[in-house]
Amino acid sequence: MPSIAITRPYEAVYILDPDSGEEQIAAVTGRYKGLVESNGGQVQKIDVWERRKLAYEVKGRTEGIYVVMQFTGQANVEAELRRIFQISEDQIRSLIVRLDEDGAPAAPAAQVAAPAAQTAGSQLDAAEMAAPEAATTAA
Question: What is the pTM of this model?
């Protein structure tokens, strides 16, 4: 039975060295774009953000240049890009997320599932479920 190729939208975010020049940024983004396209995907948008402070130190750096690339492709495109991100040293950190059809990140099954029925000992009202930090600090 032939397999059906499903094309899905993805978003890849990677952080480049803050000391990278315009030519280096263009070369790296062009390389990743070419990788996606050579594997049968299509890049819709590449957005290079300015230099930003990282939440914590990563590979000895406290700042980085964020690049957001939106693309569509089959699962093999995402897998190959993830593999190249892992072995490449031209980016500090990377993340690839599959998007829903409306462009929002796809939620894992655990987040989509409805919460189980509450037991008598752990009944919370809706406000406590929405903001558990406020419920624990108020007590």
Answer: 0.70
Identify the structural domains of the chain with CATH numbers, from first to last: 8-103 (3.30.70.60)
Report the C-alpha gap between 80 and 48 in whole angstroms. 22
- The answer to whether the Cα torsion of 38, 39, 45, 47 is positive or negative is negative
Distance CA 29, CA 35 (A): 10
Tell me how far apart the alpha carbons of residues 93 and 61 are, in angstroms, rounded to a whole number. 11
Question: Which two tokens mark 19?
Answer: 């000391």
CA distance 87 to 13: 16
pLDDT digits (tens, 9 = 90+) for 53-74: 999 998 889 999 999 999 999 9
Q: Which residues pair with 99 in a beta bridge?
A: 105
* 8 A C-beta contact, residue 98 and residue 13: no
Question: What does the alpha-carbon distance between residue 131 and residue 134 come to, in Å, rounded to a whole number?
Answer: 6
List pLDDT tens digits, range 79-115. Answer: 999 999 999 988 999 999 998 876 667 655 444 444 4
